[in-house]
Amino acid sequence: MTERQKPPPPSHTGRSNVPPIVSNAESDALPEFEAFMLLPRGPPNLKDFLEVIDVDMMKKPDENNRQEHHTNLYDSNHLIIRRGKPFQIKITFNRTYKPEKDQFWLEFLIGRYPQVSKGTYIPIMPEQEQEQGKWRSTLLKNENNSVTLSLCPNADCIVGKFRMYVAVMTPYGIRRTPRAPERDVYIIFNPWAEDDSVFLSDEEERKEYVLNEYGTIYYGEASNVECRPWNFGQFEYGVLDACLYVMDRAQMPLIGRSDPIKVCRLASAMVNAKDDDGILVGNWSGDYTYGVAPTAWTGSVEILVNYASSRNPVCYGQCWVFAAVFNTFLRCLGIPARVVTNFFSAHDNNGNLKVDVILDDEGKINTYLTKDSIWNYHCWNECWMTRPDLPAGFGGWQVVDATPQETSDGLYRCGPASVQAIKHGQVCFPYDAPFVYAEINSDVVYWKRNKDGTQEAIKVNKQHVGQMVLTKEVGRDAQKNITDLYKFKEGSEEERLSVETALTYGLNRQTVHMEGNDVDMEVRLQDAILIGSDFKLNLEFRNRSRERRTMSIYVNGNIVIYTGVTSKEFKSQTLKVSLEAQHTRVVDVSIQSKDYINHLVEQAMLHFIITGRVNETTQILTEQKVISFQIPKLTVKTTGMPRVNEEMSVTVEFKNPLQKNLENVSLRLEGPGLMKTKVKMYSLIPPNTPLTWTEYFAPSKPGRRKLIACLDSEALRQVYGETEVNVMV
Q1: Which of 98, 427, 679, 697 minimizes the number of CB atoms within 10 Å of its CB?
Q2: pLDDT above 60 (res 3)
Q3: CA nearest 526: which of 604, 582, 590, 444?
């Protein structure tokens, strides 16, 4: 029996005259001569008519076109322009152009089966006024045998790579320039143009959110924020083509590529490979044998270029990698974007605005019944655009999230959701606003489960989730706290109205009634703790009653992934605490490095849950504390005069701080305009052993640039270093 053949893909036949146009790469060449009539045998004599000798696209980085369009930084030999702004082309003919006698025009085409009505075929006469959906052109100069034209694409033009022809009218037909790939024109979004839907009025913000090739990503824990450098590299060779390939791979109709809302929504699905063979495979398992550990990446360029060249998803990514690659995609296409980090981000709470923690009647956590999770931090993106699909006032920053968490309309994607709508509880508007609202506004509800199976709420923490939202400051490497863009102050009248509004649109927040309690517990910690160190937890108890209290306290310590998922329990201790009336007492809990150091995973985080019961009143006490260790930095130093095309060196230094061997260590080094990514492997680095790596490079671009290094091993991750290099011409 023969194997059943795979059915052919669905055909457009019977539904439309042409298949859907979903590829920028596919094209149909126009004929060099398009006859009007049946011609006599042999080619017609066209020597008396206008003939194109040369077309100068004025595409060099130092020429006006790319300088004025802010595209001079792209490492490309093509003309790259932003829509809604004029650019110039110089055409040389075999003789002087005579407007009263000669007729020529330009043709811009994208994709197959180009049509004027769809904006995929754009004919432009030398003098053409701006009309709705059409380009504007002006004849600037006509001297000797050359003409210089100023062309202005409409501000809602399709974004992509256009083919360009010059056509000349003759009595016999249309004569065209041959297909010339070097004349292809890339058209991208324009935040400098007021008519473009991504227009951003502040020049300093445009420099940061569109032109800055470097960024800072914040991670860790809200009281101990760490930062890591990232090379977005949106202007590096091959990145722009990779971004266009992403849209082709998703089979996005060309006509939809003029709308940043559609582009962002599609890309939020394509950056992850969960259901559409997108850019990055997510992996939180700790086993990265068949790829690169998420913590080892230093930039987006290698990921995007590898994806476009191999046509296969790249392994592996986690939330900050998804966000960083998405940021590169957006900035490369001209959409203002930034990476933001939400500290203590609620996940999978089914729209009920609460995360449930279940305790038994002794106060110990019930790990079997506690299913909701809170990520210690979660990174997503914001992009800037108008929202004509929403009521006035909801444009500006929009949340888009490429980390595969929940499906939206059948795909793992999220957004764009208006930040302003989220703040005011207007979660009825597209896209995915309820999910984002819950990530920053959920309550943590602690429940006591009785022996008969009933549950009663014993504590509600309204301030744990969404404690802080950070992004990079404009123009400098510093934190910018943007929490107030997402939520009003807890307990304020505005916050109450926001929650009530969200509830009217389908979200559910359960009202929890609790009896008054008279003992308080707070967990404190000394300043930042270096990985591998011993430390103490300080438990402070306050008795507000007029009677003595005795308590049974349970300290549970777990190794956790940053998503809040427990890897291993390493500490379990019971304390008996007595507290006199109206008194405060501090109890220290000692944590030794030997208990946790061999069990650390991923980003070296510990999660303590301290619970207990007051014997006299049966009051349940509970607190949580996440500890993010301080990781040593790499030292990155350069030697030599930083000049374009002159050799210099960079040295990376590191010393193993752990009392154990580091095995299978990777060290990555890169810097846009300085050097492409280089990787060096070390099989073993013994304890307290120094490491030195020197590489030579020649800068290719002038200006202030950065070299970023990252060391990664299974036992020690998130080890970074950077240095700034001011390259002179």
Answers
A1: 98
A2: no
A3: 590
Distance of alpha carbon 472 from its chain centroid, rounded? 13
Bridge partners (DSSP) of residue 472 are 479
Chain center to CA of 317: 12
Query: 334-364 as b/e, with b when 16 or more CB fall inside 10 Å?
Result: bbbbbbbbbbbbbbebebbbbbbbbbbeebb
- What confidence tens digit (pLDDT) does each residue in 413-433 have? 999 999 999 999 999 999 999
490 marked as part of a ligand binding site = yes
For residue 181, whether the previous peptide bond is cis, meaning omega lies within 30 degrees of 0, is no
Is residue 305 within 8 Å of 329, Cβ to Cβ? no
Higher pLDDT, 195 or 14: 195
For residues 679, 683, 688 and 691, what is the CA-based torsion angle, rounded to 10 degrees?
Answer: -30
Q: Is 495 annotated as a binding residue?
A: yes
**Active centre residues (catalytic):** 319, 378, 401
- Is residue 98 exposed (0-12), middle (13-18) or buried (19+ Cβ within 10 Å)? exposed
For residue 302 the two structure tokens come to 């290698």
Instruction: State pLDDT tens for residues 96-141.
Output: 999 999 999 999 999 999 999 999 999 999 987 767 667 999 999 9
Would the annotation count 443 as a binding residue?
yes
